[in-house]
Design goal:
The protein has a domain of 98 residues: 2-Layer Sandwich (Potassium Channel Kv1.1, Chain A). Strand 7 and strand 8 form a beta hairpin. The two termini are 35 Å apart. The strands form eight sheets. Strands 1, 2, 3 and 4 form a four-stranded mixed β-sheet that branches. A four-stranded antiparallel β-sheet has the order 5-32-31-30, with no helix packed on it. A four-stranded antiparallel β-sheet has the order 6-7-8-9, with no helix packed on it. With 461 residues, it is mainly β. Helix 3 packs across helix 5. Helices cover 10% and strands 43% of the residues. It has six helices and 32 strands.
Length: 461
């Protein structure tokens, strides 16, 4: 590569001459191979020769000039080809920025792809990271890892026959549980190495035996996992990450009713160090369950409620279907099983009946009274001040918008999917990571990837 006084540079890639400027390269990727070649050298008037594909390099050069990929790049080259070429030239960070989707807005999201493991394609559990939107899918006794670009990185075979819960506890390590085997197990997915296990045992209580994991949540101070014994005794354990030993037993109870069942969902609240647990029983007569909040430092319950309960005559028969926490706004959300109304409670002002109910007859949303959208709500997930709720096979988002008359923020409901999308099957789990939304459906292979649709640089998976 040579330059003249005007900083024009020439590069011979695979026999084809390209021209650009030193500032184009050095301002975008100053530490790359191309930046090193753009400095003055002793090559004279002969361009530096690089034995690479010139057509792929034209994509890289366009990326350096505009920060975006050409519109036709995804149809001409595979994602892996682009990744390999960017890695060679040292511009992978720029390619990553171009390939990642725009900020996730639920009302503007569309189905971008479905990630399906090569074997046992029906996911039993999955988890996504908020940072780079990478994805770990448990299927059977295996865990498949997909990186930020959703390229398959590795599949790890565990010693379990099925993995029904998974939580990222370190950058490359997962805590996993099984519905058919006792204990919480830790794996380093980068190497496929088994790290260790934690079991709930009590020599003085024979009922505490072969306890299986129902839910897992991570925190800086340790891992929380709910355990359920064959005799229905259950509790939440706080586990020291450095030793994998039990640090505390929280909320031990006998699961003889819906109000004392094992927590099926755990959520750590970093602002106040509290742990939220919930369980919902779904039967022919509707839903029933509880929400419970513990302070792990004292192991005490700081607030709890069960539904159906007293003092809620106007909501009787419309009990909670699922619960989640918006940690950014310190707000507890639930969806009602029959009406679909959204209940909100300020975690700083919890009392006997802290719920404020919001509903929205959005005239822009099509009818949801029949088909796959019937049958009540089953899943709710909070992410970046958006509340995503699944009802049957349909997916909705509640967003904060400015009220036209009140001037304050109100909650507005929109459908994320189209009517035909909802007919693929009942939604079993929703989780967001990075700027992607991940959805699984009962008995269906793969995990759906939803992204906001206003990206000109989106690459097909």
């Amino acid at each position: 590569m040579v330059s003249d006084g005007s900083e024009r540079l020439k590069l011979n890639v695979g026999g084809e001459i390209f021209e650009t400027t030193a500032s184009t390269i050095q301002s975008t990727c100053p530490d790359s191979l191309l930046a090193a070649l753009s400095t003055p050298t002793s090559h004279g008037s002969n361009p530096v020769f690089i034995d690479r594909d010139p057509e792929l390099f034209s994509v890289i050069l366009n990326l350096l000039r505009t920060g975006r990929l050409p519109a036709n790049s995804s149809s001409v080259f595979s994602k892996q080809e682009l990744l390999d070429e960017a890695l060679y030239y040292g511009v992978e960070s720029l390619l990553r920025s171009a390939m990642l989707p725009p900020p996730l807005l639920g009302f503007d999201a569309s189905l971008a792809s479905t990630i399906t493991p090569a074997t046992d394609g029906v996911p039993s559990a999955f988890t996504a990271t908020a940072g780079d939107a990478s994805l770990w899918i448990a299927h059977g006794g295996q865990i498949s890892v997909y990186d930020w670009s959703l390229s398959h990185a590795v599949t790890v075979r565990t010693h379990l026959s099925d993995v029904t819960s998974i939580c990222r506890v370190w950058d490359e390590a997962a805590a996993i549980g099984s519905g058919s085997a006792s204990g919480l197990h830790f794996y380093d997915l980068s190497s496929g190495r088994y790290v260790g296990s934690t079991h709930w045992t009590d020599p003085e209580d024979p009922r505490i035996h072969k306890a299986r994991v129902a839910a897992v949540a991570d925190s800086p101070g340790g891992v929380f996992a709910s355990f359920d014994c064959l005799h229905r005794e259950n509790s939440v354990l706080q586990i020291d990450k450095s030793t994998l030993q039990v640090a505390a037993v929280i909320g031990q109870q006998s699961g003889s009713s819906a109000k004392t069942a094992v927590p099926e969902k755990l959520r750590w609240i970093p602002d106040n160090g509290l742990l939220v647990g919930s369980a919902v029983h779904r039967g022919v007569f509707g839903c029933s369950g509880y929400i419970r909040i513990w302070d792990p430092r004292s192991r005490a319950i700081v607030w709890e409620t069960s539904e159906p309960g007293s003092g809620r005559s106007s909501r009787f028969g419309d009990a909670l279907a699922d619960v989640d926490v918006d940690v950014e706004e310190s707000t507890l959300f639930k969806v009602c099983s029959k009406s679909g109304d959204l209940g909100m409670a300020d975690l700083r002002k919890l009392g006997e009946d802290p719920w404020v109910y919001v509903s929205d007859d959005n005239p822009g949303a099509w009818s949801a009274d029949d088909g796959e959208r019937s049958g009540g709500y089953s899943v709710v997930h909070c992410y970046r001040k958006q509340v995503l709720a699944a009802r049957g096979g349909a997916l909705e988002v509640w967003s904060s918008v400015e009220g036209k008359t009140s001037g304050g923020l109100i909650r507005r409901r929109n459908f994320v999917d189209k009517e035909e999308d909802s007919k693929r099957g009942m939604v079993s789990k929703v989780e967001a990571g990075g700027d992607r939304l991940f959805v699984s459906r009962e008995y269906m292979e793969g995990v759906e990837v939803w992204e906001s649709s206003n990206s000109s640089s989106m690459i097909e998976m």
